[in-house]
Amino acid sequence: MIGFLRGRLVHKQPPALMLDVNGVGYELEAPMSTFYVLPATGEGVSLHTHLVVREDAHLLYGFATEAERRLFRDLLRVSGIGPKIGLALLSGITVAAFSMCVESQDIESLVRVPGIGRKTAERLIVEMRDRVRGLGGAPGDGRPGPATGAARGAAAEAYSAMVALGYRPGEVARLLKGVKTDGATTEDIIREALRLAAGS
Questions:
Q1: pLDDT of residue 199
Q2: How far apart are CA 73 and CA 133, in angstroms?
Q3: CA distance linking residue 36 with residue 78, whole number of Å
Q4: Which residues of the chain have pLDDT under 50?
Q5: pLDDT at 119
Q6: CA 32/CA 159 separation, integer angstroms
Q7: Which of 38, 40, 92, 85 is nearest to 65 (CA)?
Q8: Mind listing the domains of the chain with CATH numbers?
Q9: How many CB atoms lie within 10 A of CB 20?
Q10: What is the largest CA-CA distance in the chain?
Q11: Which whole-number Å values give the CA distances from 133 to 48, 50, 128, 136, 194, in the listed order?
Q12: What is the pLDDT of residue 135?
């Protein structure tokens, strides 16, 4: 099992990214919550990983925090939940927010996540009830430090700023999906996300 990777970020195009680890290129898929905190291409990064072995492929998934990976692994144990839905859920809601939804049996918040229907949300609440207590999910918990110590990108800063403004983490994730972040400043990203929020 590959537990984590530390290397140079070669390519990132959600949900796919590639890390150069000592000359070997590892292809991974990651949720948007991880993409928001990735450094610029060419810089160093460390990611927690989970390997899914299928008959036709070995698929590697990367996560910025241990809490995200733990939730992803727990989700895969739920009947009817595969990696695609697991990534969608982590892209649309934080670990802490998901835990709150399960504990408060908040089906309506879960069904707002793309790919999560009412029956799936009900199943998640029932089967995850005993697992979410150990997830944690505070920002930065278990995050391996970037290999170069690089600062978080503009998208990550925009995410934190909007949460601080009072927007729900899941809503911020949804809005930032519609914003082109390559080459944009933190202020530009926030401005565009707020424009989208006003029009939704």
A1: 65
A2: 15
A3: 26
A4: 137-152
A5: 92
A6: 11
A7: 38
A8: 66-134 (1.10.150.20), 153-200 (1.10.8.10)
A9: 16
A10: 47
A11: 20, 21, 9, 7, 33
A12: 61
Q: Return the closest-CA partner of residue 94 out of 139, 156, 157, 35.
A: 139
Q: Distance (Å, rounded) from C-alpha 99 to C-alpha 81? A: 17
Quote the CA–CA distance of 151 and 146 in Å, as a whole number: 9
**Integer Cα distance of 196 and 200 in angstroms:** 6
Q: Which two tokens stand for residue 47?
A: 């990611």
Question: Which tokens in the block code for residue 14?
Answer: 């959600």
Contact 37, 153 (CB under 8 A): yes
In this prediction the pTM is 0.68
Residue-level pLDDT at 143: 41
